[in-house]
Input
Amino acid sequence: MSRRRRFPLLSYLLVVSGAVLMVVPFLDMVMTSFKGPGESGRLPYRFLPETFGLANYRAALTQLNLPLLFRNSVTVTALITVSVLLTSSLAGYALAKLRFPGRDLVFRLVLTTMMFPPFLFFVPHFLILSHWPLAGGNDLFGRGGAGLTASIVALAMPFLVNGFGIFLTRQFVISIPDEILEAARLDGAGEFTLWWRIVLPQTKPVLVTLALLTFVDAWNEYIWALLISTADPDVMTLPVGIQLLQDHVDPTRTMPVVMAALVLSVLPVLALFLVLQKHYVRGVLLSGLK
Output
């Protein structure tokens, strides 16, 4: 009995320790956002600020132009998330339930795209967008202008389709019984109706999980956003703006302002997770069981 009790206690201790390790950096970020100038770099380190104030949040709003950064980040993240959900659900359904020549080859190619890091294709993507015909001053042959690199569309273009999303959705759709789809076909339902009326409602948990993962990745994207914003600062997103502020010559004074901006940038992701937490956990569990 003592041995049986010891292992659950050890498991709880490990879980609590992991939770503390995850929460403490977030709490330190929040506490630092309230510190005054010079407090963040003082030794010995103090976790709590001497006085709580909102001066750093006001400074973040004025120095970073947060309304513009938030607008760009929300626009790009929403566009990427909607596109990934749409393309992943359609492609996942086609690769799981439709029979056509080369289906397995297409699926293997989708899996192959997951083997390469995304930044490997940033240079080709940039060249394609910069030579986009009839955009940004380019002629029909893509010469003479900046193409799409000077627009906010360029921030989302490389991420509109996600190989992992297609794989995840396809693995989930396989579990839908074929008899249901065949019965609907006998009743005269087309493939779009099958996808819209049968497949989508049953894949809701995995789509919510995919939406959260895609939202977080798109919201935190930095390298591609930095590359595009060098051509047009008006399309700068929140991570790029915060990083530029962090590179200030006096980090002891700007660090609390950076932390205040980080807190504001985390709030949308945290709120979205809290709203969709039930569906997210269910989607992870069902995907793991499959």
Notes: Residues 25-289 form a domain with the MetI-like fold fold (CATH 1.10.3720.10). The chain has a mean pLDDT of 84. DSSP finds 13 helices and no strands in the chain. The CA atoms of residues 136 and 146 lie 5 Å apart.
